[in-house]
């Protein structure tokens, strides 16, 4: 990187605490044994501040996927400052550019420049000026504007506070500094950075191949539920990342709980019909590509069948959606026979679709 485009303060800070941790932690273990309370507190703070980033910086401020009661925002901003990832306005600005220009030159942490660029090296580039039009809505929020203007004092104050509390309770000031501040920051930074790197590198593309984002359950365990990244980039305004009940997405559960307590509202959620259509379109395109590569002799026959079943499924899905929308205007019991019949027809078409999937994949493997 050219020196004029290199951000030395950020580089020295990140490189400095990595070197400090690498040198001081072994020395500490030679003379001390950290208490389980200290380790537990560190892990709890990693999780809490990481969730504040995903629930606050990401889903609330970057994507406006829900609205939070004003009493909640100070907590999100305190633990967001504790995470040491910049102000909410700066973070959201870069993230909105990432979504608008994913995998392009204007994407701040594009994976197209390599895994390590997306993970950490992008941070060492000179900070781009904030484009007001990108975060105009956030600049009207007084709490966000205050945190942005006084970010460094906010970051230092929050980190000093948890360090002092941990040191006072444990009596191990050196351990509190290493575990509660430095090692916590190291773990939190790298798990968050995995969303920019691993979540664009290692996994499946279940909903779209138009961008590099992937879904990976293991990554969701490291990133507080952000591992269903292909879904997120396809439906960015959904307050959920993991849409199934069994998907690990603690941020989704937090937002849902706040909603039930009256502390979050206007939760944006993509309809099941829209998700189903995206899956069908993706499966169709995937099958047609596979057929083009492997079914030279029967390509036209199978391609026609794939398109035929796909179109029928989309039609049945639209019919079912229309019927369910009509229940808002008239009693559901009147439409119940038609709804049951539409569901039955969709299931029959879906069975044919699954059979087609198995047949084509089996023949490709063979």
Q: What profile does the largest beta sheet have?
A: 2 strands, antiparallel
Low-confidence stretches: none
Q: What gross morphology would you assign?
A: globular
- Quick one: how many beta strands? 2
Arrangement of strands in the largest sheet:
1-2
- Quickly give the structural class: mainly alpha
| Domain tally | 2
Number of helices: 15
Q: How widely separated are the two ends?
A: 48 Å
- What order do the helices and strands follow? HHEHHHHHHHHHHEHHH
Strand content: under 5%
**If you compute it from the alpha carbons, what radius of gyration comes out, rounded to the nearest whole angstrom?**
24 Å
Give the helix proportion (percent range). Answer: 55-70%
Question: Overview of this structure, please?
Answer:
It is a single chain. This protein is mainly alpha-helical. The chain has two domains: 3-265, no CATH class; 272-365. It has 15 helices and two strands. A two-stranded antiparallel sheet has the order 1-2. The model has no long low-confidence stretch (mean pLDDT 90).
Please tag this protein with its features.
2 domains; 366 residues; mainly alpha
Short description:
This protein has helices spanning 8-31, 36-62, 73-82, 88-100, 115-119, 136-139, 142-149, 151-170, 173-196, 217-222, 229-234, 250-260, 272-294, 299-326, 332-365, and strands spanning 67-68, 264-265. The chain has 366 residues and is mainly alpha-helical. It has a two-stranded antiparallel ribbon with strand order 1-2.
């Amino acid at each position: 990187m050219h020196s004029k485009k290199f951000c030395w303060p950020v580089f020295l800070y990140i490189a400095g605490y990595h070197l400090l941790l690498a040198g001081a932690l072994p020395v500490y273990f030679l003379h001390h044994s950290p208490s389980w309370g200290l380790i537990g507190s560190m892990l709890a703070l990693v999780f809490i501040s990481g969730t504040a980033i995903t629930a606050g910086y990401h889903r609330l401020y970057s994507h406006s996927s829900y609205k939070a009661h004003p009493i909640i925002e100070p907590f999100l901003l305190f633990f967001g400052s504790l995470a040491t990832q910049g102000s909410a306005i700066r973070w959201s600005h870069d993230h909105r550019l990432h979504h608008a220009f994913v995998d392009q030159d204007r994407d701040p942490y594009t994976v197209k420049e390599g895994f390590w660029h997306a993970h950490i090296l992008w941070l060492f580039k000179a900070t781009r000026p904030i484009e007001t039009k990108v975060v105009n809505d956030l600049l009207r929020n007084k709490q966000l504007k205050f945190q942005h203007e006084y970010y460094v004092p906010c970051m230092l104050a929050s980190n000093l506070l948890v360090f002092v509390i941990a040191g006072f309770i444990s009596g191990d000031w050196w351990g509190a500094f290493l575990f509660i501040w430095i090692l916590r920051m190291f773990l939190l930074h790298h798990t968050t950075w995995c969303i920019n790197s691993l979540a664009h590198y290692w996994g499946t593309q279940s909903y779209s191949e138009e961008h590099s984002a992937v879904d990976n359950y293991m990554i969701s365990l490291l990133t507080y539920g952000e591992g269903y990244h292909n879904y997120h980039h396809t439906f960015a305004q959904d307050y959920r990342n993991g849409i199934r009940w069994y998907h690990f997405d603690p941020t989704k559960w937090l937002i849902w709980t706040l909603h039930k307590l009256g502390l979050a509202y206007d939760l944006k959620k993509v309809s099941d019909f829209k998700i189903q259509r995206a899956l069908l379109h993706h499966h169709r395109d995937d099958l047609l590509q596979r057929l083009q590569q492997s079914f030279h002799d029967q390509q036209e026959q199978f391609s026609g069948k794939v398109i035929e079943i796909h179109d029928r499924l989309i039609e049945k899905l639209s019919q079912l959606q229309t019927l369910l929308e009509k229940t808002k205007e008239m009693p559901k019991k009147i439409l119940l026979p038609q709804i049951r019949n539409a569901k039955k027809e969709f299931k029959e078409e879906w069975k044919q679709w699954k059979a087609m999937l198995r047949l084509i994949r089996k023949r490709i493997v063979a």
